[in-house]
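Hi all, posting the design record for the shared folder.

TITLE: backbone redesign
STEP: 1 of 1
STRUCTURE INPUT:
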């Protein structure tokens, strides 16, 4: 029996096997398990002799989806935490502490969408709370759409949302400014060694969205032309390092 199937059976038993009936078109608990493991794999940090992965995960749910977990949310969280611990052990990945999963409600999410934010928490000696490490983008998943990434926390939505599309992922920019770069502290993180830590910024102005190079080493190319500042239109291609992104609006 596969690991995920075994986990799925455990999750079903929490609510006497009603998942298949209650969660159609909504967030499936086993899908949370899959994507949590994916985020663990996506945020590896190599040490001298070990590969570390995040030990704290926040799952953002729509109000309707989170309501479905009432009554057994903590049991579900415990199972997901145990699944992450098992996954790290099987893959030989190092954890600073036992994985911790928590749920939060994000009013921006629609039913069937959920976000996951992973971070590495560094235990501090003599303190009750651990020290937070770098905070990455929040990956937002949907059964009906490609994955999105949004920055942590809730911000005011601009009149139009910008999208950066790369492969099967879309970064949704629902604030007036967003920094793209290699740093884990950027709003949208590009794991490309040829990308600067803070490579460029997207800004919403009165007449539309603009891209501004933040003094990057290798520059920014829009539609085949190197630019410092450029107004963007839907369909524009942005090349930074070896990464190609398509700009769009929602």
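Okay, here is what came back for every position:
SEQUENCE:
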């Amino acid at each position: 029996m596969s690991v995920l199937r075994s986990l799925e059976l455990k999750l079903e038993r929490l609510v006497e096997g009603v998942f298949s009936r209650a969660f159609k078109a909504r967030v499936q608990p086993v899908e949370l398990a899959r994507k949590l493991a994916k985020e663990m794999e996506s945020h590896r940090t190599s040490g001298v002799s070990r590969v570390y992965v995040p030990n704290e995960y926040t799952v953002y749910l729509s109000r309707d989806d989170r309501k479905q977990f009432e009554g057994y949310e903590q049991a579900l969280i415990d199972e997901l935490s145990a699944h992450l611990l098992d996954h790290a052990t099987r893959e030989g990945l190092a954890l600073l502490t036992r994985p911790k999963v928590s749920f939060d409600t994000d009013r921006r999410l629609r039913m069937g969408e959920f976000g996951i934010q992973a971070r590495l928490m560094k235990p501090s000696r003599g303190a009750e709370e651990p020290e937070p490490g770098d905070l990455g983008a929040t990956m937002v998943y949907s059964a009906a759409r490609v994955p999105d990434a949004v920055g942590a926390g809730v911000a005011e939505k601009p009149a139009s949302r910008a999208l950066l599309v790369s492969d099967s992922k879309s970064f949704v920019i629902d604030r007036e400014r967003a920094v793209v770069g290699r740093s884990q502290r950027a709003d949208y993180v590009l794991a490309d060694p040829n990308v600067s830590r803070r490579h460029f910024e997207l800004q919403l102005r009165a007449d539309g969205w603009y891209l501004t190079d933040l003094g990057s080493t290798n520059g920014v190319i829009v539609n085949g032309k190197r630019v410092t500042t450029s107004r963007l239109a839907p369909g524009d291609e942005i090349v930074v390092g070896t990464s190609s992104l398509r700009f769009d609006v929602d």
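COMMENT: The chain has five helices and 19 strands.
Let me know if anyone wants the other runs.
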